[in-house]
Amino acid sequence: MKTRRSLRLISAVLSGIILSSSLQVQASSHREAPYITSSPKVDGSDFYAFTSYENGREDYVTMIANYLPLQDSYGGPNYFDLDSNAIYEIHVDGTGDAVEDLTFRFTFFNEFTDLQVDAGGTMVSVPLKNIGEIGPTNADNDNVQVRQTYKVDLIVGDRRTGTVIPLADADGVTRFNKPLDNIGNKSIPDYEAYANDHIYELELPDSCGTAKVFVGQRKEGFAVNLGEIFDLVNLNPLGAENANTNTLADKNVTSIAIEAPSACLTEGAETVIGTWTTASQRQARVLNPNPTFDSNRDVAVEGGAWTQVSRLGMPLVNEVVIGLKDKDQFNASEPKDDAQFATYVTNPSLPILLEALFGVVPPNLYPRTDLVAAFLTGVATINKPTTGATAEILRLNTATAPVAAASQDNLGVIGGDTAGFPNGRRPGDDVVDVALRVVMGALIDDITIAPSGELLYTDGATVDALDFDETFPYLTTPIAGSPQ
Predict the structure, then answer these.
(1) In DSSP terms, which residues pair with 411 in a beta bridge?
(2) Parallel, antiparallel, or unpaired for β 60-72 and 44-51?
């Protein structure tokens, strides 16, 4: 016979499943949709995919998925670990059908050590994450109380039913350390060296060689004036490109970065790949009224099928293209089903809003076939696959040679640099300015159709390739939690 306690637990689980099912359409990224504001650890903020421009790595593709945005560097004592009850995935479509052929899945684990000190003859647990200096290597440190490790699985085929291949280094190790966040210079005197010691080389199957992997805190690389943009574009959109301070200049982010051989990501003669990142949580969650100091089940028990709660390919789509009512639904969906959102691209609302705010004339072209090419199919001769589905993913032509950082144009293709956005996305590509100009008709040659298409729209915050490192993982050392 079931006890009253077990019946209550079953009821709670069923309620959790029902509640979670009602939230399946409330999954989002970039904090622009309702659900994700309650789950910042799985909030995807930026996604990059580009042919590596590090010297000697031109035959590799780097993909970087940023999560947990808007981190204040002083955010202790717990700082910014990722969710051990979620999975983070980077998907690759090598055949143009907007369905993943390969998925790199990252799963995180919390590792606890109860550090205590002798306080008047009584051993008492300390309140801090560390009780002494950390580094410069990634080896377990007696001064660290809480840290995260992770594993990487390569899934061939469908992300849920395909063949799962655990990835290991040359010594067969399959569990890797995530560096602690940049607590400050007293705790981690040489953070750059400490973080670099957390770059791993993993063996890939089928004689594909190795992939580099790094997971850890980085300085936020995205440049945008968030407050002004969302305050009815409260700035001069035709002003100087560096007219305003970058809102995110003092923030950090957590990056999941992988660099893999291009030849292992493409299929047959096709050189264009489609990439995107997702995060997923369990459908059901039961809170523990008596949480314990345990590795992964201290606060809640989670179960049920994995449910996608974050999705990101092309930048700024959910922010300024998808209507508010569909932002959650968009990020819970898969690229192969994007036809349901096509109207937002063919008949965009942003140009109409800019017309109302500033009197600029939007392109008189419906449907917007130029935006379909930029956002949904790839641009002919640039990054459009031989045969392909209409879907919002970040497409990269691996046959396009990379451009050294010093020679990159931060406007990418519209600036004459075909190795840049929207042919993939590099850290130094100013995607905000590109998106503003493209949505106002920069890709339309006929001035009678797009009279404002040649205007130099900008949000006033600029970014450049030289702002970043020129070696993997490219994004730079995070801001320290203390200035001393």
Answers:
(1) none
(2) antiparallel
